[in-house]
C-alpha cells in the first residue's frame, strides 16, 4: 500500500467509524501525519481524492471539513467513474436502471399531483415538437428527472441522473433509424405519463421498465462495440 493509499484509507476510516462526523473540521496536518505515519504531501493528495468524492470540503482560510455526507451528494460523485465505463459496462448498469426507474415511476404514480401531470405532458409535447437532438435529449432528461423527483427519494433521483448522464453520450436519434426510434420513444413517454396521471403504480412501473429495456436494446443493436460517438435516455 502506498503512502497516499494509507492516508486515504486512514481518513476514510476516521469518517466511516464516526470519529470525524459530518461538518467537523479534520485535525491539523501535523497531527494527522504523525497518527497515520505519512508525509504532508501524501496526506494532501488523499484529501484531494476525498474532496473529489464529495466526502471532504477544503475551505479557504478556514481549514478542511468533513462534508455533510448527504447520500445524494456522495452518490453524485459516482459520475467521476461511471463516465469511464465502456458500452459493455454501461449495458450492465441498465439492469439496475430498469429496476430503479420502475420503482420511482410507481412511487410517482402514487404521489403525483395535477401540476406534475401538466409538467410531464408539457415536456412530452416539447420533445415531440423539436427537431434538435440535443434539445430533445435535455427535455428527455427533465422528463425522467421530474418523475424521480416526485418519487420522493433524492438519493435515488441523483443515482438515476448519474446513470442517464452516461447514457446520453450515445446519440441514437442521430442515426439513420433515428426518426423511427424517436417516435417509439415519444410513444413510450406518453404511456408512462398516462399511467402516472391515472395513479396506477403497476402500469407506471411496467411502462418505465419497458422504456429502459427498449433503450438498452437500441444501444446493443445500433451502437459500435468501441466507443466512437457521444444520448439515449
TrEMBL record:
Residues 1-69 form the HTH gntR-type domain. Keywords: DNA-binding, Transcription, Transcription regulation. It comes from the Bacteria. SMART domains: FCD, HTH_GNTR. Pfam families: FCD (PF07729), GntR (PF00392). PANTHER family: TRANSCRIPTIONAL REGULATOR, GNTR FAMILY, UXU OPERON TRANSCRIPTIONAL REGULATOR. This is FCD domain-containing protein. It comes from Streptomyces dubilierae.
Amino acid at each position: 500500500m502506498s503512502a497516499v493509499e494509507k492516508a486515504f484509507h486512514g481518513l476514510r476510516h476516521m469518517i466511516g467509524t464516526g470519529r470525524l462526523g459530518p461538518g467537523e473540521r479534520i485535525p491539523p496536518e501535523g497531527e494527522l501525519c504523525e497518527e497515520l505515519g505519512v508525509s504532508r504531501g501524501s496526506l494532501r493528495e488523499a484529501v484531494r481524492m476525498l474532496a473529489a468524492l464529495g466526502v471532504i470540503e477544503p475551505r479557504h482560510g478556514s481549514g478542511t471539513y468533513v462534508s455533510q455526507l448527504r447520500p445524494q451528494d456522495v452518490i453524485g460523485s459516482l459520475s467521476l467513474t461511471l463516465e469511464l465505463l465502456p458500452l459493455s459496462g454501461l449495458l450492465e448498469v441498465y439492469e439496475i436502471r430498469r429496476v430503479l426507474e420502475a420503482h420511482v415511476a410507481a412511487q410517482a404514480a402514487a404521489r403525483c399531483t395535477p401540476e406534475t401531470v401538466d409538467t410531464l405532458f408539457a415536456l412530452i409535447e416539447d420533445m415531440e415538437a423539436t427537431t434538435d437532438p440535443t434539445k430533445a435529449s435535455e427535455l428527455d432528461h427533465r422528463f425522467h428527472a421530474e418523475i424521480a423527483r416526485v418519487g420522493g427519494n433524492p438519493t435515488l433521483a441523483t443515482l438515476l441522473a448519474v446513470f442517464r448522464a452516461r447514457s446520453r453520450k450515445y446519440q441514437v436519434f442521430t442515426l439513420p433509424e433515428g426518426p423511427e426510434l424517436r417516435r417509439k420513444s415519444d410513444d413510450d413517454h406518453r404511456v408512462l405519463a398516462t399511467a402516472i396521471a391515472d395513479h396506477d403504480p403497476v402500469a407506471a412501473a411496467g411502462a418505465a421498465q419497458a422504456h429502459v429495456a427498449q433503450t438498452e436494446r437500441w444501444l446493443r443493436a445500433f451502437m459500435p462495440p468501441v466507443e466512437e460517438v457521444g444520448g439515449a435516455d
